[in-house]
Amino acid sequence: MVSIELDERLVQDSYPVTELPLCQLRLMDDTRFPWLILIPRRGGVSEVFDLDEADQQQLWREAATVGKMLKTLSGGDKLNVASLGNVVAQLHVHVVVRHRGDAAWPAPVWGHGEAVPYDLDSLAAMRGHLLAQIEVLTLR
Length: 140
Fold this sequence. Notes:
Elements: H1 8-13, E1 14-19, E2 23-28, E3 35-40, H2 53-74, E4 78-82, E5 93-98, H3 120-136
Antiparallel strand pairs: 1-2, 2-3, 3-5, 4-5
Protein name: Histidine triad protein
InterPro entries: HIT-like (IPR011146), HIT-like_sf (IPR036265), HIT_Hint (IPR026026)
GO molecular function, one term: catalytic activity
């Protein structure tokens, strides 16, 4: 498995969940939104087009599969998938489930209010739910 150095902001703002075939999967530290981050394990990559075609397809496959799982797990109304990179240049893809009436609805989640961090119990529970669901997916 290829290892890469993560941007410090990604490390500070999220928790590791597991390794997928291409990406490290991380949980954003904000309980207001079911929010995962996919970070391809490829060095020097800041844009999707920096990946070769096979990795681009794998990234989309992982984002779609993880997004469907997270939306089902959280009973969300809409799935948002985005790669911004304005603050963190390292390629990473946000997978965020939205609920009508959530803290930012219908606006984007970025920059809206203050994050509500996970406590140790809720973090362990969320990681456990995610890992249980990922085990049944064909991504691993």
